[in-house]
Amino acid sequence: MIDSSASDVDEILDRAPSEIDHNKALEAGIVFEEQLDRLINSALARRINTLEQLEFYRQGLGKQWRRVSDEIIDAEATEVDPRKQIEAPPYASIPGSDSAPTSSERDTDARGEGA
Fold first, then answer.
1. Which domain does 49 fall in, by range?
2. DSSP for the chain, written as a single string
3. Residues 53-100: pLDDT tens digits?
4. CA 34 – CA 42 distance, rounded (Å)
């Protein structure tokens, strides 16, 4: 079987390609060229995007954006004096009550000392 396979291969290599063989090779070449074209276009798009980003950085936008983000990260919080805070209204009214309880009444009820 191996001897016949070698002779079959030799026969295939010795014969002249037909028009169909040329067409199949051309079709395979076209598919390869299309794939290669897509890869090249993708690489060029990434290159253009990278160069634009580099140009933004060189013009100072990159430095400016970094400075702004650093200011946001490093920002200090200022505390509000508790005496200057305004008391928030209650979330809901208490059933059977015409007015909402004051903060001292709520604190007393929370400790169990009220009504």
1. 18-73
2. -HHHHHHHHHHHHHSPP-HHHHHHHHHHHHHHHHHHHHHHHHHHHHHHHHHHHHHHHHTTHHHHHHHHHHHHHHPPP-PPPGGGPPPPPPSSPPTT-SSPPPHHHHHHHHHT---
3. 888 877 777 777 778 878 887 777 667 677 776 777 777 766 665 555
4. 12
Q: Distance (Å, rounded) from C-alpha 115 to C-alpha 97?
A: 13
In-domain check, residue 49: yes
Asked whether residue 13 is assigned to any structural domain, the reply reads: no
Is residue 55 assigned to a domain?
yes
Residue 26 lies in a domain: yes
Q: How many domains does the chain have?
A: 1
